[in-house]
Amino acid sequence: MTLSSPSTSIPPGPGFVIGVAAATGIRRTPAYATAQLLLTHPGPRRDSETVEGVEDGMRRLADALNLGPGDRQPPVIGGRLLVCQGFAALDYGHAEYMMTIPSPSQDWLALVERGAACRVCLVFAPLALTADQAETDAHLRDSFERGSVVWGTTYVRRRL
After folding, report:
1. Which of 80, 54, 91, 65 is nearest to 150 (CA)?
2. Contact between 117 and 155 (Cβ < 8 Å)
3. Could you tell me the superkingdom of the organism this chain comes from (predicted)?
4. Looking at residue 100, what is its pLDDT?
5. Residue 36's domain spans which residues?
6. Which residues contact 69 (CB under 8 A, 6 or more apart)?
7. 96: Cα separation from own chain's centroid
8. pLDDT for 16-72, tens place per residue?
9. In a domain? residue 124
10. Secondary element (H or E) of residue 111
11. CA geometry: angle at 8 spanning 6 and 4, to 5°?
12. What angle is formed at CA 76 by the lines to CA 108 and CA 58, rounded to 5 degrees?
């Protein structure tokens, strides 16, 4: 899979991004902890939306974030996270807007604020908001096998 170069990618607008679901988690090993951010879309919800349109929007979002293929080492995409007073946002490359990350856990916020890496994982194919853990796992595995998962590593952008 080839992603567009950052200079030619146009990020989706806020009307699309507001429909993107974001879930946070932490992967813990004996040696380290990595914050995780899963980006999915529940699929068409308006008469004018299609599955293809949603997937195109997710591909544009992946391009804007400079995410790489899920079967390779995730690229470092720079400081894209902003955290302030318990709220978190992701700079997805739009000139005026950022994506709010709803309800991150206090553990996740503390981890990224300490400078830990955050692995962003984006899935192109829609995933229903009602999906349980087993359905989400199956969707991720299937999407990975089809090459429909991209990812990257980010961290909190420090203020000057």
Report:
1. 65
2. yes
3. Bacteria
4. 95
5. 17-154
6. 1, 147, 150
7. 18
8. 999 999 999 999 999 999 999 999 998 888 888 888 999 999 999 999 999 999 999
9. yes
10. helix 106-113
11. 65
12. 80
Per residue in 105-124, pLDDT (tens digit) is 999 999 999 999 999 999 99
Distance CA 57, CA 44 (A): 11
Angle at 75 between CA 20 and CA 113, to 5 degrees: 65
Q: Which of 8, 20, 158 is nearest to 98 (CA)?
A: 20
pTM of the model: 0.88
Please tell me the total count of domains within the chain: 1
Query: Token pair for residue 56?
Result: 């195109």
DSSP assignment letter at 93: S
Q: What is the per-residue DSSP string for 65-83?
A: HT-EETTSPPPEEEEEEEE
- Among residues 39, 38, 36, 47, which one has the least CA distance to residue 19? 39
Q: How buried is 106 (Cβ within 10 angstroms: 0-12 exposed, 13-18 middle, 19+ buried)?
A: exposed
Measured between alpha carbons, how far is 94 from 113 in angstroms, rounded to an integer?
23
What sign has the CA pseudo-torsion 105, 147, 40, 157? positive
User: What does the block give as tokens for 53?
Assistant: 């349109």
